[in-house]
Amino acid sequence: MTRKVEIFDTTLRDGEQTPGISLNAKEKLEIAKQLEKLSVDVIEAGFPIASNGDFNAVKAIAEEVRGPIIAGLARATSKDIDRAAEALKPAERPRIHTFIASSPIHMKYKLKMTEDEVLEAAVAAVKRAKSYVEDVEFSAEDASRSDIEFLCRLYSEAIKAGATVINIPDTVGYATPREFANLVTTLMERVPEIDKAKVSVHCHDDLGMAVANSLEAVLCGVTQIECAVNGLGERAGNAALEEIVMALNTRKDFYKVEHSINTRQIYRTSKLVSTITGIAIQPNKAVVGANAFAHEAGIHQHGVLAEKSTYEIMTPESIGLATNTLVLGKHSGRHAFAERLKELGYELPQDELDKAFERFKELADKKKEVTDLDIEAIVEDQAVKLPQSIEVECFQVSTGNKAMATASVRVNINGEIVEEAATGSGPIDALYRALERACNIDCKLVDYSIKSVTGGKDALGEVTVKVDKDGKIFLGRGLSTDIIEASVMAYANAMNKTLWNNGNGKSS
Ligand SMILES: CC(=O)SCCNC(=O)CCNC(=O)[C@H](O)C(C)(C)COP(=O)(O)OP(=O)(O)OC[C@H]1O[C@@H](n2cnc3c(N)ncnc32)[C@H](O)[C@@H]1OP(=O)(O)O
Ligand SMILES: CC(C)C(=O)C(=O)O
């Protein structure tokens, strides 16, 4: 039978120790209910002695959440254990998690206790916890920097005292995967009573090795992993739940273990935790980051369009995400662009598609990401385009609150290059006057409007103008990330139409 690894979620305890997070009982309960849906085996709901608020949160979770074991943390002291027991009273499946540090550094400087005193406190704590609940977890804090002889003695005595779970923490994220595997294996071999308890690990991410260390421990035979959603936790955080679970899933061929997590709830859980804690998820975060299922490069997009597994080792659906995304940007290719146009309902003939793709690439050089609205704007702009008799080759404008706006333009009118300059009440007015002079068209601007077609600082601006020429109104549109350029394009577009109306336009 395949071994099962239990997922002990400590988002609400160690996760809450993330600098800047303080959750109230209602928020903790909401997260706990989502963790229940995620189907974690254990929810460490808090540290009841820490505050009345945390006591109440653990109690509320113990009252309302059914299914997972509900754990409360306690130092190896009577008052902590009594408080934890009190908070956990309503739980269907309570667990008291008691701990004491075992490393020379912690014992000498923090606890000011000898090995024997720590051993005695640990045994007394486990026994006291056991007097309240059947399920007692014992952790030797800073195990990875502890003396192995002492550690074996400590775990052995904790199990004899009634611990049902012994947890091996890499409290300060110091161990390397090989060292941590050696530690776990040594304890498995040398603690005589170890088969009477579940063996757990709790890894921190100070050197970015929390997930790797936890997974190494799985290979050594541990049956519980402690982790937190989005990798939250003290300092650099804990092993990220979603990374561990998806590694076990995706590489089941390698780890060969079962777990109970409903992976389709991962994305929702991650979002909820991020929203409630206010800790944003970095875009390149494994599994749940915004880019985890996004492809930008043309070669990758082409591969994914042909067969998703070319560049996706797990499906977005498996974590509860509707779909992957092909992000259109400067690295994208024709395949992805054409596919997006199709999704947006545009079926363009090849020559128009080529033109639109060219404009898309020009825009992508200026913008980080080209959105659907940008693409629609490009296609629609192209659809209404008449052959251009007037092409603005370049323009320049200078303005200031204490200076007269001056503009110059160079225009190609049916192959003839004309340069002109003008002043105006503002940069747009100056440019429009220069354009009128260069094109020798006597028209009047009757309406000017500008709007942002897309969001962000690098959004496309769309300028629409109405121009009166001999009593007739001509509409012009311009689109650019530069609103001055969009204004020039819009006016040139309207003037171009006046020429076509007069029969002066020329097919380009
Ligand atoms: C590795 C971990 O993540 S462990 C969990 C860490 N989490 C937290 O500390 C969050 C909640 N903590 C708190 O609210 C507070 O620290 C409390 C309520 C637990 C204790 O507060 P205070 O009584 O004011 O003590 P303070 O936090 O300043 O110092 C810790 C005390 O606990 C002792 N202690 C630390 N760990 C343990 C332990 N496992 N068993 C027994 N005593 C311990 C320390 O030696 C120190 O004792 P001292 O007051 O006699 O010097
Ligand atoms: C309480 C223990 C498990 C802990 O949080 C740690 O050692 O990091």
Helix-strand blueprint:
Elements (H helix, E strand, L loop, with lengths): L2 E2 L1 E4 L15 H14 L3 E5 L5 H13 L4 E7 L2 H11 L5 E8 L2 H8 L3 H18 L2 E7 L6 H14 L3 E6 L6 H14 L7 E6 L6 H10 L4 E4 L13 H10 L1 H4 L1 E2 L7 H12 L16 E2 L2 H9 L18 E2 L7 H10 L6 H17 L5 H12 L6 E11 L2 E11 L2 E9 L2 H13 L4 E9 L8 E9 L2 E9 L2 H19 L7
Parallel strand pairs: 1-10, 2-3, 2-9, 3-4, 4-5, 5-6, 6-7, 7-8, 8-9, 11-12
Antiparallel strand pairs: 13-14, 14-15, 16-17, 17-18
The structure holds acetyl coenzyme *A (ACO) and 3-methyl-2-oxobutanoic acid.
Pathway: Amino-acid biosynthesis; L-leucine biosynthesis; L-leucine from 3-methyl-2-oxobutanoate: step 1/4
Organism: Tepidanaerobacter syntrophicus
Cofactor: Mn(2+)
Summarize the structure in words.
By secondary structure, the chain is of the alpha/beta class. 41% of the residues lie in helices and 22% in strands. It is built from 17 helices and 18 strands. It has an 8-stranded parallel beta barrel, surrounded by 9 helices. The protein has a 3-stranded antiparallel sheet with strand order 13-14-15, with helices on one face. It has a 3-stranded antiparallel sheet with strand order 16-17-18. Helix 1 (25-38) packs parallel to helix 2. The longest helix has 19 residues, at 483-501. The mean pLDDT is 93. Keywords: Amino-acid biosynthesis, Branched-chain amino acid biosynthesis, Cytoplasm, Leucine biosynthesis, Manganese, Metal-binding, Transferase. One of its GO terms (biological process) is L-leucine biosynthetic process.
